[in-house]
Amino acid sequence: MKKQILSLTTPLGQSVPLYKNVWGSTKKGKSLSIVGGLRGNQFNGMRLLARLSGFLDAVEKGEAAGFEISGSVQIIPLGNLFAVQSGTRNWTFDNLNFDLAFPGYDQGEPTDRIAHCLYRHTFESDFALAVHSYDARYQELAHARLFHGDRKARKLADGLGLRAVREIRETSVSELQLISQWRERGVAALMLCPGETGTLDTGLCENLFGKLVDLMIGAGVLNSANRTPEKTEVSFYSPKEEVELKSSYAGLFIPERSVGDELRAGDKLGEIRDIYSGEILEEITAPGEGLLVGLRVYPLVYQSETLATLVAKKSRWPFSF
Amino acid sequence: MQIQTLLQYQSPLGVPVEIKKQTFNCARSAAGRPVKKISFVAGLHGDEWEGLYICHLLSRYLQDLKTTHAESFLGEINIYPAANPQAVCEGTRLTPFFSVDANRSFGAGGADSLPEYVASDLFEDIRSSSDLAVDIHASNQRLLELPQIRIVEEFDLSLTPLASECNVDLVWVHPMAGVFRSTLAYNLNKARVPALVVETGICLRIHPEFCRQVFLGLVHLMRHVGILKGDDSLEFSVKKPRVVYPREVGSLQAKKSGLFVHQMKLGQNVQEGEKAGEIIDPIQGRVLEEVRFPFSGMLFTVCENPVVYEGAPLARAALDQPAGK
Ligand SMILES: [Zn+2]
Question: Is residue A149 classed exposed, middle or buried when 0-12, 13-18 and 19+ CB atoms within 10 A define those classes?
């Protein structure tokens, strides 16, 4: 069921509603909240949550054989409403990074109010997912992120079944993120990064949809008579098990691999060429074996920019970064 | 005076992006002996040009002083007039290409991106060049500010006496918030380098009278802490600012979205119930809200951009009576 949870008015008097979709009852079983659209250009996340909402509607109507909602689920598919409307990463009016607007303020300006509303509607859940991808200049492997050492979140990530989980370290800004606020309130919370920002990959969305169904079954908010969650080997990578390959030169970066590739030491990832002469300035190679989780796809690069991110279990490393 | 490039990286055009600083030494430091050091930083947000102009006034004054009264220099002065050169050249708050806020990139505890590397190197340079630092900002595109210094409560005792020597109208001691954790000044203060944050004017503009006021204040600060000796070439009286704590600051917010039309003036003393302006509906030709002050006090922030959403700050004042009394 679609419910309006906030209404904002533009300077020309137009109302802009914020909605959530809800299924089941919070009075029984466990609760799961999923929030997406933290930026205006996260199309995989939008498609994924629309697909999941359609499925849960069908379950509630009894049209999805064998499935039954056993707890409660709520999805807020579009958080950063005005950024979605302006078609930009951030809302152009305030240019604030919405990912760092939490817990928000209910008497503040639109960004503060939306952030506060999202937080208020979700912080009492047992489980929560923020569907959020990062920089549109990178191709990203669909993966989950959590704060290093968060055991509740690790368990949830295990149930999601994506092959790579990055355990991120806390920074001077992380307390302003929604997943950090959830964790503060004892919610088992994850960030699901659904591939590349700014593009739509329907095949990937369908795959992630299946993962979310499995997660819901594992979390006890959805019952299934005949579906057994697929078993995937999930690898957790600590901050020390990541390496970023940087550009020593500025120029045009031409990638030769794709995210998801398992690399061996010496494998070429791409090269930087001089924009004027086309001359090769630098070849980027893997310093050791690892899984490619992030790759620069926006070709113009400054010196010292990240071109690729690799993860590898420490035990498998013949090298040290 | 020396100009050094403390940091450079290459853009895709092959052109270096350089952060520069000016250093003014004294006889003692030239002889390699320890002296007190101060740094002035501006342009972390590229659309805040009041700070660049204040740095220019400082630099011009110090260059003249070097030729006429070289003996007045007792310490080392470092000026970083355009700490975020790419953003300054494009007049944007965020660093172009990377779309990050340079003053939310400090203290990350590890650098993942080029802006974080730059922040980390810049921080280290400022930290090692300062016993005291001043980071100069203008407001955002919407709010015009009276020259003021802002201090996070936990640094009140060490910073307020210094801020009171800067010829500003107001020193605002405010509570800590998560957003400050990644700023230059917060991290300098945490690293035991006292750092003051000046806020003055508005972005994309220069208010020469405010800039001159802050410039004189910073000269006085250098004299006060013993980095400059007083000289007869520049004599002026120093304003004692009003120091306000959270309960002494009143905020006026929009109750409706629309166009805010007002005649408020910075520094104006207003009374509770007095009319501040109107929020109008430009489509229907109606007045949506007759905005009245919910406090009595002296205005130190006024809203300059008429397009407002519900909740937008319209004015801030140093209250005549602390709230709750
Ligand atoms: Zn600023």
Answer: exposed
